[in-house]
Amino acid sequence: MKNTKGTKKGGIKGKRERYAEQRSRQSRNPKSERKPSAIKAQHAEARRSRRERRPVEYGSKSENSQYIQWFPGHMTRTKRKIQEDLKLVDAVAEIIDARVPMSSRNPDLPSMIGSKPRVILMNKCDLADPRATKQWAEHFKKQGVRAIELDCKTGAGIGNFTSAVSSVLADKIEMWKSKGMVNRSLRVMIVGIPNVGKSTFINRISKTSKAKTEDRPGVTRGNQWFTLTSGGVSVDLLDTPGVLWPRFDDQLVGEKLAFTGAVKDDVTDTEQLALRLLEYFRTRPTKVFCERFSLTPEEIAGSPAHELLDAIAKKRGMLVSGGEPDTERAAVMVLDEFRAAKLGRITLELPE
Length: 352
Known about the structure:
By secondary structure, the chain is α/β, with parallel strands linked by helices. It folds into two domains: 73-239, Rossmann fold, CATH 3.40.50; 248-352, Conserved Hypothetical Protein Ylqf, Chain: A, domain 2 (Orthogonal Bundle). It is built from 14 helices and six strands. The protein has helices at residues 13-28, 37-51, 73-85, 109-113, 130-142, 161-168, 170-178, 198-206, 251-260, 270-283, 287-293, 297-301, 305-315, 327-339; strands at 91-97, 118-123, 146-149, 186-191, 224-230, 233-239. A six-stranded mixed β-sheet has the order 3-2-1-4-6-5, sandwiched between helices. α10 (270-283) packs across α14. The chain starts with 12 loop residues before the first helix and ends in a 13-residue tail after the last helix.
């Protein structure tokens, strides 16, 4: 996984880089350290507004909710290209994020791929609750869809891919053999939303580094073919850019995708997003979360999200002039640590 110099893996690059640039400008121009009175007043008003918000349980909308949408123009072209290239492949492998197995599935995909055999690859299982991942695998099995658990970074579960594809294509393979087409390559299209690990999966399973990867959405822009051989079976993989759908009908879906980094951080309010994530932890304070920030479950449950963010900033020494908590910086850190599973292996949704 490539990283921008000076940026931690899993970090929020856009926000962090702007924050670093701001600090750099201030170091060159000490006068800029003083914020204009209008900006100070605006920030003070925002803090007062947050203090008046009542605690809510995550799952319902709150004053910290935000409507999140990201659908760049190239995604329309990608959707069209996927539909055109379906005739070139025998099956489709859909990669999803094991932390949000339902929210990370494009609802337009079934109509796009039609009757093509499909395999679901639950990636990032190392970041998700293992018990929840098992529940989701069973859920997909009941729906008649083969699902396998993966950690593309370490390669865990990768060895099950070829057998899974061969299984869903068993009838076709027998038909090819009856026609004398022995050892025909299996052609599989890799699809998924941005930043679920499609290119990382291809690089791991094909043992190359040709597919461009970064820990941010929107890196792969064009279709690429890759060939691999496993267990005597030859597979041709067609990598495709990540594609979302034009509108998130459920606001919680957009937030969950923003939590995991599938939506560009530049289109969200980072601090507001972190407050929504803290609303989740208020009712589900994991042991790791409590230890990470030296908070008790009672302290967490009894504090609104903005007070939790203030407390986290103070405990981490993130302060600005006057001893005020630097909530913007703390918000980046909270999202960063959630995405790296430093707050625990968490799955944000379970099968109904």
